[in-house]
């Protein structure tokens, strides 16, 4: 049984404003502190306590260690009804999942390159801290009003090793993310047979090669500098 908190209810020093999301593992609340500043409270579900231990551990550990405006700051650990919870900085903005759900929103190429540059910078900071996020998807990437990008939800993030948790996992997600953005300006003729993205999208050979390398379809990228340099070349050619 999940004990939901309602708007106006108090959890320790925080007053609940809204429920932002509910996953298998827990509930994400928007709340405000005693100074009236908004923040995020993540509360784990009881029946998921065993399974979610590692999710909780890594998300906390990793966010504590990252000190950059490109990620939400870890504020504090709480225990609520004997369940672990933690408080994170609230980032005002909109997640890409919501932008993509709005069919009228089209990403232009120069916007896609700007977003790609910021995401690569984010991956580069993660790599400097030996971290792979493993979930860089539209619900987990937020864009602020000033167009700065912030990566959230570190539940699957881990320390890089050379087996399961490789750098290439985040390169694959970056490629897939960018393809979602390219598809916003693709008109699907329902009469025609579906083709793979590299045939359907109106993109250059260089863009195809870049995306294929990110996704490991062609020779994979081995380092982030190479990716940075290829995006700059694409941007100049555009
Ligand atoms: N720091 C934050 N600032 C602003 N909004 C946030 C923040 N963290 C989460 N959100 C909002 O809450 C939603 C759910 O958050 P998040 O994806 O971290 O939860 P989760 O339950 O761990 O997700 P999942 O079930 O996908 O693992 C996000 O899509 C976003 O809209």
Automatic annotation (TrEMBL):
Keyword ATP-binding: yes
Cited SMART domains: TyrKc
SUPFAM superfamilies: Protein kinase-like (PK-like)
MF GO annotations: ATP binding; protein serine/threonine kinase activity; protein tyrosine kinase activity
EC number, UniProt record: 2.7.11.1
Organism field: Anaerotignum neopropionicum
UniProt xrefs under PANTHER family: OVARIAN-SPECIFIC SERINE/THREONINE-PROTEIN KINASE LOK-RELATED (PTHR44167), SERINE_THREONINE-PROTEIN KINASE CHK2 (PTHR44167:SF24)
Keywords: ATP-binding, Kinase, Nucleotide-binding, Transferase
Protein name as catalogued: Serine/threonine-protein kinase PknB
InterPro entries assigned to the protein according to its UniProt record, in alphabetical order: Kinase-like_dom_sf (IPR011009), Prot_kinase_dom (IPR000719), Protein_kinase_ATP_BS (IPR017441), Tyr_kinase_cat_dom (IPR020635)
């Amino acid at each position: 049984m999940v004990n939901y908190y309602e708007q106006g209810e108090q959890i320790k020093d925080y007053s609940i404003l809204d429920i932002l999301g509910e996953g298998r593992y827990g509930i994400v609340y928007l709340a405000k502190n005693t100074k009236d500043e908004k923040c995020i409270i993540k509360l784990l579900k009881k029946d998921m306590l065993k399974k979610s231990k590692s999710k909780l551990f890594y998300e906390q550990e990793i966010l504590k260690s990252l000190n950059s405006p490109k990620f939400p700051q870890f504020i504090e650990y709480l225990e609520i009804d004997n369940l672990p919870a933690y408080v994170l900085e609230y980032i005002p903005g909109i997640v890409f999942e919501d932008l993509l759900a709005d069919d009228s929103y089209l990403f232009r190429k120069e916007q896609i390159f700007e977003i790609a540059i910021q995401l690569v910078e984010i991956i580069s900071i993660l790599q400097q801290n030996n971290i792979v996020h493993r979930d860089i998807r539209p619900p987990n990437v937020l864009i602020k009003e000033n167009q700065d990008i912030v990566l959230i939800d570190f539940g699957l993030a881990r320390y890089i090793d050379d087996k399961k948790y490789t750098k290439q996992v985040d390169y694959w997600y970056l490629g897939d993310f960018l393809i979602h953005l390219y598809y916003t300006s693709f008109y699907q003729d329902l009469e025609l047979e579906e083709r793979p993205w590299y045939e359907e999208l109106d993109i250059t050979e260089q863009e195809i090669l870049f995306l294929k390398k990110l996704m490991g379809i062609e020779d994979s990228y081995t380092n982030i500098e190479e990716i940075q340099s290829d995006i700059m070349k694409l941007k100049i050619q555009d």
